[in-house]
Amino acid sequence: MNQLVSDPAFWSRVQFGFTLTYHYLFPQLTMGLAWFIVYWKWRALHTGDENYNVAARFWAKIFGLNFAVGVVTGIPMEFQFGTNWADFSRYAGGVIGQTLAMEGMFAFFMESAFVGALIWGEKRLGPRVHFLTALLVATGSWLSGYFILVTNAFMQHPVGYHLAADGTLGVASLSAYLSNPWALVQFAHNQTAALVTGSFVVTAVGAFYTLRGLHPTQSKFYLRAGTLVGLIAALLVAFPTGDQQAKIVGRHQEVTLAAMEGKFKGGDIAGVALIVFWRHRLPDIILPLC
Amino acid sequence: MLILWCLLLRTMALEVGGHINDRLWQQFWDFVFVVSSFLLAVLFGAAAGNVARGVPIDRSGTFSMAFFTDFNVRGYVGLLDWYTVSVAACAVVLLGAHGATYLTLKTEGPVHDRSAVLCRRLWIAAIPLIFIVSVETLFVRSNLLREGLANPLFWLGMIVVIASVWMLVSGIRRYQEMRIFVGSNSLIIGMLATGGATIYPVMLLSTVSPEYSLRAEQAASSANTLESALFWWPVAFVMAASYFVFISRRYSGKVSVRRDTQGYY
Fold it and tell me: Which of A272, B117, B123, B132 has its Cβ near the most Cβ atoms within 10 Å?
């Protein structure tokens, strides 16, 4: 244990894990909220009901705040690829650098160019273009998620790469790399989870307003949209997306699935474990994962 | 890491400064915004100076640097020396002039008038500073001029720089805001392009020994990776440029406090 604590790699992992976890709280919410804003902008456009615009404006402000904090917390993460994992970046940068750059060029530029217009540009843009702006922000945020998940999927299940003469990795097939089956499954699971987060936050604000007797029309909008999307997304996050995610983990990383399910002894048949207690000591299987 | 801190503080100041209607709170975050923005200009300038001067890459192909050593530009140099400090000072004045030019173009009233005065003063300071830093660069890396003269892109960049300076000077004389802004943009682009064309193919010069320098072919990814990037990058670039054009056209003209707030109310 002392050896572990005195190992700089251990602390680098702790630092990176903290940065990653803290950062992820924000994009998870913005990816979920983005489509609520699109929905309310679309309803405002088609019904002419100003209340939908009020809802969109309120949530666009919350989106903007979370987007800014998401960017701020995301920058250290990219820096830490260099400061904490320089050798990994040198080895795999030819592959993962592609999607990180694509995320910046295709998604982040789209999202950041239009988020300002979404929050401050309603008068300048007019209702139709403002709706389009909301749509582009939502598309940008989900596209951003896809490129980051492709990068992560490569680290879990590498495809479409080749080993160059200098011992580093390069892209052999961009299409294979971008359509990594792991990434597709992970994206579906992750985005439905983002919708769960977004809808729970929307529902919570609606419930708070209702309990306080504030903004009755708005609270009705938030509760109706939040609970409906929340219910559908919560079902989808479990099945089929969560199921497919677990199956692909089982196909390519048996040990990871065993750890996820709390199975620390081999056998022909694995029962379902709902709650796992470690009574004596940390199972041997966990130690290599620490 | 210093750049990271400045980027974080700058974004935080922008984001949280306006959320509490308290004078002390807002002034504190305005102060944080000014200091972090100023330091960013200093750090970007110092970084550009380090790229131009070189860094102490050793036989292993790596380098580590102290914040400063003996302020000389040869051997085991530090992040700051007389050359990188002067590039940083030039960058602060140049970026300040560029920012004041943009504010003059986009604002009206007292902010416009103050920006116009600053714009004029800062450009008067920036142009001689750019000349001084260029002469210093020739002293620090004497081979650059010889290599640049043989490079057609260097000449192209120089034409852009000279045309930009002419636009700036004539724009300031005639009080033409758009002319100054176009001149300011093209001057920065021309200087970066000239610098890039001149130092190529050395990406990072070693101040320890030229043979340890990092060259473009060593720093490049594999051919397949570069081909993939060449395939998607032009598409992405056109898309990003189109957003920029769209937003610029929609937000053309002076900023109006009444018009550029949220909603229709």
Answer: B123
CA–CA dist A156, A177 (Å, integer): 12
Write down the pTM of the prediction: 0.86
Interface of B to A at Cβ within 8 Å reads 1, 4, 7-8, 11-12, 14-15, 221-225, 228-229, 231-233, 236-237, 239-240, 243-244, 246-247, 250-251, 259-264
CA distances, B232 to each of B155, B229, B235, B248 (Å): 30, 5, 5, 24
Question: How many angstroms separate the CA atoms of B247 and A114, rounded?
Answer: 8
Which residues face A198 on adjacent strands? none
For B18-48, the pLDDT digits (tens) are 778 888 999 999 999 999 999 999 999 999 9
Phi and psi at residue A240, in whole multiples of 5°?
-90, -10
Tally the C-alpha atoms within 13 A of residue A85's C-alpha that lie toward its C-beta: 19
Shortest distance between the Cα of B35 and any Cα of chain A, in A, equals: 17
How far off is chain A from B14, nearest CA to CA, in Å?
9
ipTM surpassing 0.90, yes or no?
Answer: no
Where are the alpha helices (H) located in B54-151, listed in sequence order? 82-106, 110-140, 143-149
- Secondary structure class of A162 (helix, strand, coil): strand
The 10 Å Cβ neighbour count of residue A166 is: 10
Tokens 């987007």 — which residue? A67
Cα distances from A254 to residues A31, A190, B114, in angstroms, run 30, 21, 67
pLDDT at A289 over 50: no
B19 Cβ neighbours under 8 A, 6+ residues apart: none
Spatial CA neighbour of A178 closest among A253, A98, A78, A90 = A98
Residue B265 has pLDDT above 50, yes or no: no
Q: What is the pLDDT of residues B190-210, one digit of tens each?
A: 999 998 888 888 989 999 988
